[in-house]
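Assemble and predict.
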Amino acid sequence: MSETTPQHENPPPPDGIRTTGADAPGDLPRAPLAEARGTGRIGDKIFLGLSRGAGVTLLVIMAAIAGFLAIRASHALSANEGNFLTTFTWDANANPPVFGIAVLLFGTVVSSIIAMALAVPIAIAIALFITHYAPRRLSGPIAYVIDLLAAIPSIVYGLWGGLFLVPHLEGLYKWLDDYLGWTKIFAYHDGAARSLFTVGILLAIMILPIITSVSREVFRQVPRMHEEAALALGATRWEVIRMSVLPFGRSGVISASMLGLGRALGETMAVATVLSPSWDIVPSVLDAGGGTFAQNIASSFKEASGDMGKDALIASGLVLFVITLVVNGAARLVIARRKEYSGANA
Amino acid sequence: MMLQRKNGLRAVAAGALVVSGLLALTACGSDDNSGSSGGDASKQAGNIKCEGKGSLLASGSSAQKNAMDLWVRNYTAACGDTQVNYKATGSGAGIQEFLQGKTAFAGSDSALKPEEVTASKEVCTDSQAIDIPMVGGPIAVGFHVGDLDKLTLDAETLAKIFDSKITNWNDEAIKKLNPGAKLPDLKIQPFHRSDESGTTDNFTKYLKAAAPSAWPHEPGKAWEAKGGQAADGSAGVSSQVKQVNGAISYFELSYATSGSIPTVDLKTGAAAPVQATTENASKAISEAKIVGKGKDLALQLAYDTKAEGAYPITLVTYEIACEKGNKADTLQATKSFLTYLASEDGQSVLKERGYAALPPEIATKVRETVTALS
Amino acid sequence: MSNLVKDRPAVTGSAPRPGSLRQPRLPRWAPAAFALGSAVVGVAIGLVAGLDSRIQWGLIAALVFVLGSYIASTVVEGRRQAKDRLATSLVWVAFLLAVIPLVSLLYETVKRGSKALNADFLNHSMAGMLDDQAGGGVYHAIIGTLEQVGLATAIAAPIGLLTAIYLVEYGRGALAKAVTFFVDVMTGIPSIVAGLFILSFWILWLDFDYSGFAGAMALAILMMPVVVRSTEEMLKLVPNELREASLALGVPKWRTILKVVLPTAIGGIATGVMLAVARIAGETAPIVLLVFGSKTINNNPFEDPQSSLPYYVYEQWTAGQDASYDRAWAAALVLIAFVMILNLVARGIARWKAPKTGR
């Protein structure tokens, strides 16, 4: 949550201190402090060096990650006999290697779309529930519990998904097939509910807490006056929300959703436990098949032999890396825009 | 200032508390599970010759994991100085880790490829890696069709089922092989391994060898056919078969036994359909030819055997080590451990986990090879 | 308050009484009644139609509830009120829908996890255990998790802290902008990518062995940006007057930061670090790639393989036997308890040490 609490940019602290801190005390010719000032300067230098060094370390790590992934990925791509974007197989261990990410891209996108379609409305509803609907005494504890749920490790979600959720979804899928089977998208033929839709549901449950808690923070910041003005005009609660809460929170909700999306895209273990992967694109989201980037890395990794096997996976990891980078970057951009907007209004 | 100093002290104290707490914690656990294990632990410890000490790392085939667990338990019960860690990462990763010098030996479902042998010259000083067959076993075809507990199939039907050509349990072809059985109108759900695996390799090799016309795909570690569902690992597919009505899949016999999953009897051309048992698998393995050169004991399995009572879908897994030039610090322990595996005791405990002991003539050669490792 | 009109609407329909500003309202108990009614309808339909999935029953009941209260409200109260009621019931339904899986997750973990959980489970390792045997324990995994997470924290916390200090107290210019941007990017790194990086860098390229430390480094990469961001927020909350007061007394800047700024924000920083710890304690993917896994106790994170709690859960899940499923659930329970305790402690610190400014 702290990652996204809108940070009030241009806080005077850094700037203000810089001028007073670096120059002013130094200019004061006060004898008794001379000694302290001396150590202070050295101390300052050391401290600045340390903290700047830490920042640089971070940059180096990032560069190393990008560099290592890119080098190994290009290694694999140059040996690849198939088209990396359109090939429907993953024979990276073969000689010559043939592999492509078409299925992974499709599976990742579809499962994330399903997850977002399920999670975002519900998360907004819960956030509204906590801020506007729940009995006052309950809203605190509920918010607290939702925050705690955000901390449940993904492997536990995976365990629950594989051993509890999958068997319980079968009835639902058969039902969907009965009524929506004609759409082909919701046709269900297989006997086990281990499909992209199941992945979507599990991911939705996993990202629900994070979207909820960020949206909740945003809704909390809606100026009280806006709401009271609307109420005074005789608006119903829903009208208050529609006219003052949602417009104010829109960009916040968007960025919260993006953060959730970023998480859904990169989720590994929970997907690996509930999906029955295959190397083709299945028309129905309820039928088993497909795969995601992270899931494929985790499950193909053990048998990835030769240099090429691992490098091909690293190449797909690089694609995942770029996708999450774009999504997260977009989320930050929206937050930054919002800051200006609300700053102008405040 | 006082306040700050106190804060600093408090932080140090908290840190010290955490560290000392951790130290205290590291002292209170125990590796000794003899109290809770099934009761047969450490009984076979009698004849094990312990040599070397320290930590012995190995990784590879998950098909031999259950055998390895048993061996490791018995071996470490007798030789407390050695810690053996076998990680079932899969044959490919096992070989790779071995070739990188990360592990003392690898477990693999298939013999080394020529380029792997070449690569092994880097880790094995002045020598190369060899295949040592250590454990064989039947690959059972487990099914879940209502409460049907007996089913006979032949290679061709099996191939068509896994290729999604036969899609219903009441198909004529299945009915013909099972006169009298009550076959329901139920969709067949063939499950295959989603990870690459030696089990898949051997299973598809069998299909290709015994029913070439019905199985158009290339045999290999990765599943080539379209359709069907996938799950991770033998445990994954077997637990799916348990859950899903109409399912059929292939896995090591031990998973069928421990999950009480009924298995298919194979009509091989012998007089009677052959059951998937360790004895029947041993019979099939004894038909195998040694094709490795020199000390290498790579086997060629006879998948299309029609011998009486020989169950043809078998798998032989190898340990892979350097013929000469094994890492000095683990050589003693490796030899001592492998010697135990190849010994009468080591082979005979396998049966209880659904594996087949090596046929005597191969076992003898294996023992010679292991003794000569250096 | 609407007693007067309560019994009327059914007769007079939706028309408000002439001369009254007040619209007819549904009685206060109406939502509860609708909820009860729709639950009954859901169960009835489920039973009659022979639907075997409880999820379907719930969905039907939810649908009946939303539609029922909307229609009733339209008839009685008019469209605006009906929309309000629709929104209210949708929000409630959404809340319940979301709560069910989350409660079920916790319930299942506690129920199935408590089966194998006992003192022996906590202080024994898996040495010599076969997958399908009951027994064995999680001790080696607990040690592994504590050590790996501890090492990761020891690496990531100072770097993260100093970076945040740099950004807030010194940061200006291109370097600070770049650091800020890349910290954001870093928060988005999927854990498996961090694992791949350490694997190719530390194990394949520098040729070190699998160890707890390798895992700790991947965890540190995941932890750093989280620490930076939360520390940054906390430092920004420290009122500027404090800094200026200290500097005006002639205290050098570094001492000001160490003695004034940090102690003021220490509660929030500690909270942030603990939350980051809780977050990485549950990471599985990098551990699977880097720590190798072990069944025996290994107290040395720098040498030889270790295990860890999430890895243990994964390992037991992969083994696929009834006994191993029991162990997986029990370990999941231990893991959740560990993470929850960290969270609670973090929040406790936050409340205890909260800066008295702002919200």
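Chain C touches chain B at residues 120, 123-137, 139-140, 142-143, 146-147, 150, 203-204, 207, 209-210, 259, 263, 266, 292-297, 299, 304-305, 318-321 (CB under 8 Å).
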